[in-house]
Amino acid sequence: MKDNYMIILLFGFLISPWHNTFANEPVSVTKTFQSSQMVFANPERGWITHRFANDLWGLNELRNSIEKVSLVLIKIDISAYVNSTHIGQSKLNEIRSALSNCRQNGLKVILRSAYAWDSILAPDPKNIETIKNHILDMKPIYYEYEDIIVAVEMGMFGPWGEMHSSQHSTINTKFYYPVETGALRQVHTAYMSALPSRRSVLVRRPYYIRQIFNDDKPLTSSEAYGNTPKARTSYHNDAYLASKDDEGTFGPGWSRAQELVYINQMTHYTFFGGESFGTPNDTYNNAQNAMLESKLQHMTYLHRDYYTPIYNAWGSSVKEEFTRKLGYRFELKTLSYSKEVAPGGILNFSLKLQNTGFSAMHLVRPVNLILDNGKTGGERIRYQTTLSVDPRTWTAEANIISIDRKLRIPATINQGAWQLLLHLPDDNIQLQSDARYTVRFANENTWNADGTNLFTNDILIRTSAPGSHTNDNVFHEITATTHTPSISQLSVIKTATILILFAEYDQDYSFHQAFIDADNNIATGYFVQGIGADFLVENSNYYRHSGNKGSDWLWQSLSGSVIPIIKNQQYIWQLPIANLNLPITLSSPVVFAGAKDGIRCDGCHAFEFSNLRYKCQVCGDYDLCMTCYNNKKETWNHLTSHKMISIEAPLIDNRNSLVKQHMNQISHLEESHLSKVLSNISADNVRIKRISSSTEMLVERSVSDSRMKTMSSSTEMLDKISINDSRMRMISSSTEILDKRSINDNRMKTIASSIENSDKLWISESGIRTVSSAIKTLEKRSNNDNRTRIASSSNDAFERLVTNANQIRTVSPSANNSRTIMITPTTDTSDKRSANDNRIKIASSSSDTLDKLSVDELYEFLLRYDLNMRSLAEKFKSERVCGADLMSFDEDDYKKISVTYGEKKKLKLLIEQKQLISNTRSVVTTTQVFDSAQIQKELNYLKAIIENQEKQIQVKNKAIQQLEDILGKKDQQIQYQDSMIEQLEVTIQKQCEENLIYTKLMHQNTAPQNYFAQQSAVVQDQLMNIPNYISKISIVLSDPSNQNVPVVRSNVLTAIDLSKNMQHVPVLKTSLPTSCEGPNSSDVHFPAVYHPDQEVLVTKPIIENPYNINNYGTYKVTIYSQDSQHIITETLLTVIPEIEICVPKQFVVRDSINNIVVGGIITLKRVEENSVIFTGTTDQTGTAILPDALADGTYEVEVYSPDNSKLQHLKFIMVIYQNRRQNFINKFIGRSDLGSNQMHMVLEWDAEPKDLDSHLFSSDGKHVYYLKRSDGNIMLDCDVQNGFGPETMTFTIEPNLKYVYAVHRYSYEPMLTQSKARVTFNFNTETTQISKFENENKLINGEIHCIPEITRPEARFWIVCMIDGSTKQIKFFPNAFEDYNDYQTNTIGMKYFTA
């Protein structure tokens, strides 16, 4: 996020369109707010009370109590686990339930855990590892409820968790001795690991903080809010104001005054609270001193019940004042704002406020401004922007706090009166819409029930308002009040190949930017300082804007980099225009900008980026530091699924050889050219302007020349120019030019030529319109006396056109329902047109009628008429049919010659046309001279014919359209009926299939059998040891109409609710006989164990071959009594395959060290048909997308890289059942270039837990893991810490050595046994042979072993196998786990070398 973002200067390449954006802005008015003495709840501050996690009484009354309690201390009793390595699941569920109740009641919490809540000496565990494990046990809860957890008091040590009288005290046999430093540091480190990065731990004494960090100096402003352990550590005082040293809270060796100075500095930035203690109205806890020290120590919270007599001694007025002042209390003082603003204009905003509380706000919180039209429901419109201000800096010592901003009003905002609201919601998106977690200001008539604070309701939006405005449609902040940098020696140099940007800043900045408006269009790109920037150069990166209208910070990184050249405070970029493909013109404006500490992390709100920063491509103006990015931080509306780009801010010095090279280049450039250009920039601009002006003149002259040439060559232009009579007379004297000026000469000549040289011509409706247009134009010309006095050669052209046009006689529909007219020639093809004659000789053709055609003539005529009638012409010729015969054809004649229906239709149409031709007017054979009256008469005749035909066409078109509409509606009805029939058929078919299944189930009868003893130790463990929170399903009777048959996975336990009061149910935990009836009951069995303590029957389907889809479907499972003589119950279960073996929608292919495999081949073969149905190639992300629609069945998948022979060629089996598919699967390809006795093991798992680690122990003392990645010939090739894997281990098996391979759960969540961890064993089968210890079968290259999914929540190690180098045997441990977490020793190896 840009906090102190500063626009510096706009600079154009040649002509800068710069103007003063903020000139003549509207006059501001000032409003004064009235303070309120009202007591109300605000989050993260105030009086607190406590509740035990298992005793949450009266939570719903706290916010409305006299003290307006919004913060609760939740006490967690873990005394039952003092001798347990981990906290039990029931206690963790209890804590979750307590926090969920607090959230529902609008409360925030402080947590404290302890092993005793009474005066018991040393109640905590002796083993510090136990305490650390218990802290880590609660880590998932801390993250799950981060939104309501304000801080965690360290607790753990001693009675009440007050960090004295502990097993780990300096003297642990007496009360009140402090905790020793080593234990403090270990537990503090555990909390830093377990808590979210923005949550703090509070220790009991300031002295402990100094011991933990070995530093007597308090937290400073430069260290605050940095998410370091010191910045996240403060203290709480449970003997507040009790005595001179607050009962041992202060010291040793420090006076009260020294401690208060230390605390005062630290609590500027951290939480502080506690509970009072001592004699009421004593030296320190009297009202006056209590008020003084609470302000001095910046008290955030105080326990209202400890100690009530002290508070009573203060009196009600002092206690009420404490109620107002505990923590922060913000009061609005004045607001200056623009009374009137134009849409797209600037709202001046100047707010003054004050913090009258004891302390600052200590958790991050956005400060939003909202424009509201004041309406409700669907008519309500709101615009919101987040100000670049951190409310944690609004301290009690700051007196008056000023916030001055300029805000851009959206250009599309409606005119009228608008409200301006202030909104400080919670930073966590889950609570942002909950008004109980928003900040209320202490003023009269400002608070709204939705959590907003009303500034004013009279901001008038008017188009007539003064001030500048833009078309920017986003409500946003456009200026900041911090130091505005200056810039000198600004220049932009553009050549054909390179763009050079040069600027000299007045100080060093973290980010140097140049915004380029390539298309000089403010409406496109990112709106900044009056331009629409399309490209951004920032330090060594450059970007293209992907949005428009300047609404979002949507920059897409371009490949490559631009190494900036830095000399002192001079910043120079050289951009290769050709490589960047930047469409930069001479008028493209540039905005230079700089930011100093101006970009903060939106995850942790740190202002410094020591490494990369990451910019979100979805959220507007959202940045994360590397730490938050790696931790997948989500805040506000930002999600980890959003695409982010990395941005460097490199420090360039002379030690970098690449920089030296560029420095030398720029030095040479400055000496030879750049210095001259920069010193004479103004002269260059003048010359450029002159060139530009000359260029414009040349362009204008070029355009004029072009127009003149066009005029001289275009007869249409002559029509426009030839207005006066003199020019018309000149034109009329030239018959050649006039001939060219006939309307659409080319078309007319074509028509005339066609008339003379064709037997007929069919013209479509568009042809009618063309002729009509020509006639109208001729009519206009004939009315012009100047144009009618034309030469005889021109008359010749007109007479030919009109004479032939007169022969239009009929309109006939063609086969495709278009309308055409036939033009019949009136001249014989042998006639010639005399060049000097004004007459047309027209003779009757001997072929005008069919009855005059001989056999051969008819044959030739039909071929010319339609080439598709060749076969018919051949028939006529062979049967010796002449024209007269054809004219007298009847139906029998057509049948005799086998004329098709289409041919007959064409012939009849041809006969009708020839009959019409025979009835036409007598041919004009005499010479004739047409005058204007005669032409007009002929034109009128033609117009009448065309109008009549057009009317007929319109009538027929309308009738056809009506018929088409009727047919369309009928088609829709038919389609709907067909669809309904299809749905009914599918429904009936499905019901028939279900009835067959249920009928089959009802009639099958298999003998009961107790399958428990036949199962592996893993399956027996799963069935016998179930978690306390297992979910139950109800019994579903064998009823075909039942639609609620439970769906169970083949590798997951199913707990059936079975009351112990039912007949024949055993009293003790025991296995029971079962039988099943279903699709393949011979290969599917259901071992079962009854658990009377939870009243559930636990079972799981055991499938002999999970890749046979015939094993999946609905089964009727019958459960019997122990002696198999009685049926306890029956139920239906639908078995589906594990998602891990189902064909995914996408494969993401990587090698075993997590490199993307581009160009990898994925093939999918359906085993049942032995046919390849899909072949795909991985893209640049290693992804291959599979078809959406795939039939149920078994598939062989093949994955390999044709470009890398060192990677294995994988083949494996998967299934598809009822379209059950994962979105994607990561597929890691192992190495194929392994040497003799070399083993390559690849560990992969699901998204959680984030970090599993591979450990390999050898019997000669080697231990390779992430802290020691290689030892001898053992190598950890890859270590992944954010889920999925791979973790890859490669080693050479040596004789006389044993190796133990184990997987460690480094991160806490979730259980190791739920991680879906699996290990693939790769080796060269030609040089290495490894047999299995238990059955002497050979280990297969690419063999996969999966973690057993048993109930072992405490497990930290999964012991996978032991390999004996002497015997070349591998022993797999089917169910071996270890709970302890000491992963830096060889304990695991020593234990399992001999197992």
How would you explain this protein's 3D organization?
The chain has 1395 residues and is of the alpha+beta class. Helices cover 26% and strands 25% of the residues. The strands form 15 sheets. An eight-stranded parallel β-barrel has the order 3-4-5-6-7-8-9-10, surrounded by four helices. Strands 56, 57, 61, 63, 65, 66 and 67 form a seven-stranded mixed β-sheet that branches. The chain has a six-stranded antiparallel β-sheet with strand order 1-30-22-25-26-27, with no helix packed on it. A hairpin with a 2-residue loop joins β25 (535-538) and β26. α4 crosses α5. Residues 1-23, 479-485, 648-848 and 916-930 have low confidence and may be disordered. Pfam families: DUF4832, DUF4874, ZZ. Residues 932-966 form a coiled coil. Keywords: Coiled coil, Metal-binding, Signal, Zinc, Zinc-finger. One of its GO terms (biological process) is aggrephagy. GO terms for molecular function: K63-linked polyubiquitin modification-dependent protein binding; protein kinase C binding; zinc ion binding.
